[in-house]
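INPUT
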Amino acid sequence: DIQLTQSPSFLSASVGDRVTITCRASQGISSYLAWYQQKPGKAPKLLIYAASTLQSGVPSRFSGSGSGTEFTLTISSLQPEDFATYYCQQLITFGPGTKVDIK
Amino acid sequence: QVQLQESGPGLVKPSQTLSLTCTVSGGSISSGGYYWSWIRQHPGKGLEWIGYIYYSGSTYYNPSLKSRVTISVDTSKNQFSLKLSSVTAADTAVYYCAREVVALTKNNWFDPWGQGTLVTVSS
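OUTPUT
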């Protein structure tokens, strides 16, 4: 089974910062990766699928890249509503999550 | 747009069966093209995929839960359901239903999700 790891597990940042989260797969998965945002008490929300395709309605400050075993989610300018936990996913496996908190 | 809503008891006794239903609105399960999944999240933890069902009734379960999980579909009600047997405190979690999009054999994602329902296993 594929394992997904995320780094960092916790990130402290300020509004306006550029934030990058990395997801690594234990074996090559082409561009088959999705990213989700989850706020406390809410369901996860799809941000990006197929590694780099922005889901409809998601702000363009979010972007995804990568293929094979290493992927990144970038928030170009962190907004107050972006403080949340982010998960990557491939097939039935989710990464452990990265919590983005306010500095 | 498609919306999903979980329903079911919030408290289940140990050794009993957890039963949840997901009602789909804004679209038909029978239209095909999507898989209908259950995912859970233990308190303060990450996401665990439980299984999915296709409108035809074909299913696939997480191997770690397979012996205790049954997912069924009722296309007439536009609902799908989860049963998890022999529950213990370790099954206490928020349970989500979600629509799974499969673009290629290994290219999948979940959208949308239900709001989630907390199920506590306790006597």
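end of record. Residues 35 and 88 of chain A are 4 Å apart (CA to CA).
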